[in-house]
Amino acid sequence: MKTPQTLTLNPPGYTLFPSLQNPQSKTLTFHQITALFITFAAYASFHASRKPPSIVKSILGPDPNNPNDPKTGWAPFNTQGGPHRLGELDLAFLAAYAVGMYLSGLVGDRIDVRVFLSVGMVGSGVFTVMFGLGYWFDVHLFAYYVVVQICCGVFESVGWPCVVAVMGNWFGKRKRGLIMGVWNSHTSVGNIVGSIVASSVLGFGWGWAFVLPGLLIVVVSVFVFLFLVVNPESIGLELPQDDEDEEASEVSNEGVALVNVNKIESEGDAGNDDIEQVSESSAAIGFFEAWKLPGVAPFAFCLFFSKLVAYTFLYWLPFYIRHTAVAGVQLSHKTAGILSTIFDIGGVIGGILAGYTSDLIEARAVTSFIFLLLSVPALVFYRLYGSISMFSNIFLMFLSGLLVNGPYALITTAVAADLGTQSSIKGNSRALATVSAIIDGTGSVGAALGPLLAGYISTRGWNSVFFMLILSLTIAGLLLVRVVRTEIRGKVNEGKWLWLSGIAL
């Protein structure tokens, strides 16, 4: 009897190295670490290829001291309206990314995730390189860069639903926050790598800032295609049940189908009815059905505003540092680009700290809310005192990165995985990519608006930009109030957090 078409095929690398697919020769832990490492490298390379536009902004844009000098910058971005055009480029990429995210989640739950992810990485690398080629071919047509960014955004949208689905398949709920927090540092690590690589080669021409990260993601895609195993069941392994929650064992559709097919073959004619039951129970969840799952909508809209802030920093922080004197000194393009990595280093710590805290207190929403609440004064202090000295700039930038990226990392990883495997859908991991795509796709709409608004608002002064960021973080926190209250009430009913009973009730 033929197995269902939805079964995930073993990667080609496992054919080259047969011992890898033998459950007796390699432990579950070995394969979990392998999946974690490969998906980490994959998404870090996505973010490395996403970083160059922010690094070259100050080179492409006009000289702030002489905005109408045609000898500076790169046409069509070197005029007084150059920051607007640069913001529109960010919008082109991120709008395509947001739309593509919704579609990628639906596709990722229905085809081989390994192949889908590999295609997305290669496409991202090709169009990142094409942007850089505009330097050598002396391209000054704005439409060219817009089209390239749109295509790049579509291919980049493939990454997140795929890697979250793989991680959800390999890791249960126990300590998921800490594991996902550590794993989600790939975002900041990718930003750091992209910033350093792009900044280091600016002296050879800004095109190299795109070519090297583009080639990097193509190289990593080869390892993804050869060695990424989407779920443990496809190689004969099975996740152990968590003691606290039986639903934490993410049983993928492919694994369920495989187990039931073997059972059907042993039971003979009675298998026909079972095939229909397997197909129905393991069907991928619908887009609108996923929106109705408890907690999906509030976290999705919270991420809209949280990611708006994170991506404004991602795309405009080097530009802001370059045009803001620190201790009375104007920093160079290269120094500003490298210094901006401090925000991402703080993001690494913030993601891990948020994940660990949410595991410790067993409350994702409360953790996110606390980080969002503290991030507001952090941004105020960074704007007011960040330029006093290099020490204050680094410290406050680090603190801002820690608090801004903490909830962003937690929501896009552990929260998305929790919501995609909750009891209301019986732990069906075929909802993982769809739910994670809805949450991050909605967040990506905010990510698209943030850099665009910053490009326009920055011409009026950076105080206006920071006001927008602070307002966004405040709204993000307010959107979680109801979920936070429900979470606290649940803890009180369990006999925990009794000192918060007044708030819960």
From TrEMBL:
Membrane-spanning residues: 28-46, 91-108, 115-136, 142-166, 178-202, 208-230, 296-317, 337-356, 363-382, 394-419, 431-453, 465-484
SUPFAM superfamilies: MFS general substrate transporter
InterPro entries attached to this UniProt entry: MFS (IPR011701), MFS_dom (IPR020846), MFS_trans_sf (IPR036259), Sugar_P_transporter (IPR000849)
Domain of life: Eukaryota
Membrane topology: Multi-pass membrane protein
Keyword line: Membrane, Sugar transport, Transmembrane, Transmembrane helix, Transport
Keyword Transmembrane helix: yes
Compartments (UniProt record): Membrane
Keyword Ion transport in record: no
Domain Major facilitator superfamily (MFS) profile: start-end pairs: 37-489
Family: Belongs to the major facilitator superfamily. Phosphate:H(+) symporter (TC 2.A.1.9) family.
Name of the featured protein: Glycerol-3-phosphate transporter 5
Phylogenetic placement of the source organism: Eukaryota, Viridiplantae, Streptophyta, Embryophyta, Tracheophyta
